[in-house]
User: What shape does this take?
Amino acid sequence: MPLAFTKMQGTGNDFVIIDGRRQPFVPSPSGIRALADRHFGIGCDQLILLEEGRAGGALAMRIFNPDGSEAGACGNATRCVMAWLHRETGAQAARIETQAGLLEAHLLPDGRILVDMGPPRFAARDIPLAAELADTAHLPLTFDSLRDPAACSMGNPHLTFFLDTLDGMPLERWGAALEHHPLFPERVNVGFVQVLAPGRLRLVVWERGAGRTLACGSGACAALVNAARRGLAARQAEILLDGGMLELTWRETDGHVLMAGPAVFVFEGTLAPSFPLGKEGSKGGSDAG
Assistant: This one.
């Protein structure tokens, strides 16, 4: 059987979504790399595999980076999955299972999707860090001209630097080196933030396993949280990314981070049987339509 997929994007963060409940698909690292390739495959920042919910969720989503590694959480992908579920079932709200836990999402009147990303975690063991540092709002880490970053977990590890300007920054060099910094045993997503106003931040992100992306939902959450921890921003702000804008609130009542933004269907298609998905994957190639 041809393998069906849906291509979606949220603020330019793009995904290939495969419904594993209706068709057999066991992801292999080589198959994921082939699918994510923008020249020889479909192209995406992450591959999303939908499965039956097992822990109280309407469904479960697994998140795979273009290098074949698996991620714990993705805010932009969660919004896209909520929009996908709404189109399929008419659901206005749902709980979606991830490796990082259950994420609640619902459709807003203006068509955007709101996701409760849960509370950030600040303990070194929860991020995780290779050293037991007490103050993760100010890490003793320097690289080139970069210094004094903050770190937290939003279901995956994030490192945030605050710069006066993001123009002309060598993102590829900085991001590639910092992703593999020995302080982060599971690698790290690296965000570079320019504070435009207390309620308006500009963010550029280097994602572990993916490189530069136009947006990162969990990275936007980490940017707001770390900026607020440092007294640089309010607990509610617009986050401007290369692919668009997200609205975030770090709620005081329970510490949860709420993220609102778009989720857009791009196209749907099926993979040709000759596509190289690897030994573990279903057979399939790109006859997208």
The first strand starts at residue 3 and ends at 10.
